[in-house]
Amino acid sequence: MNKQIINVLTKTGLLGAVLLFSAVTSTRAQSLEYRIKATIPFDFNVADKKMQAGEYSVIRTNQNAGDGILSVSNLDGRSRSISAVVPVESWKTSSKARLVFHRYGDQYFLFQVWPPSAMTGRQFIKSRTERDLNQVSKNSHGSGPDNKVEIVTIMGIVE
Questions:
Q1: Strand pairing partners for 150?
Q2: pLDDT band for position 140 (cuts 50, 70, 90)
Q3: What does pLDDT average to over the chain?
Q4: Do 146 and 104 contact (CB within 8 A), yes or no?
Q5: Where exactly are the structural domains of the chain?
Q6: CA distance linking residue 77 with residue 49, whole number of Å
Q7: Within 10 Å of residue 1's Cβ, how many Cβ atoms?
């Protein structure tokens, strides 16, 4: 009888350890602890910094801290922006990492970063330029493409 109880407790303990490990691994993959790389085919802005089209990576600025401050860096090392971000939630997830941009005419602004399979992403604080463009688009009576914000999504990979 004691042997059966010990056997059940051992199996329950192992199952609990496996579930705990799975939860921790899943949570880490949904954070920006890992670098997201993407090829951006257009010039864009991060906060008030202009970035040229090219290959970029997004990652936490400090690996021991949370996802509150992110670094967006060109892979050739010529351009880098460090910005504060705020968490945003969504019920929709994607199996791939995503960078979401706002587009006003021919100007693009990095808006959100989403790790793969995450329900929590990070949103960049709008720059003065984007706020001004957003206000113009709200006040404009025209219906052309330059008068509204468009959402552009670029898929990335996690390394």
A1: 103
A2: low
A3: 81
A4: yes
A5: 1-30, 32-158
A6: 15
A7: 5
Task: Give me the DSSP letters along 86-152.
Answer: EEEE-S---SSEEEEEEEETTEEEEEEEE-TT-SEEEEEPPPHHHHHHHHHHHH----SGGGS-EEE
Q: Which residue has the higher pLDDT, 138 or 88?
A: 88
Yes or no: say if 145 and 133 are a contact pair by the CB < 8 Å rule. Answer: no
As beta bridge partners, residue 154 has: 99
Half-sphere exposure of 96 (CA within 13 A, CB side): 10
What is the predicted pLDDT for the residue at 52?
95
SS3 48: coil
pLDDT in tens, 50-105: 999 999 999 988 777 777 899 999 988 788 899 999 999 999 888 999 999 999 99
Per-residue pLDDT at 111: 97
Residue 60 contacts residue 123 (beta carbons within 8 Å): no
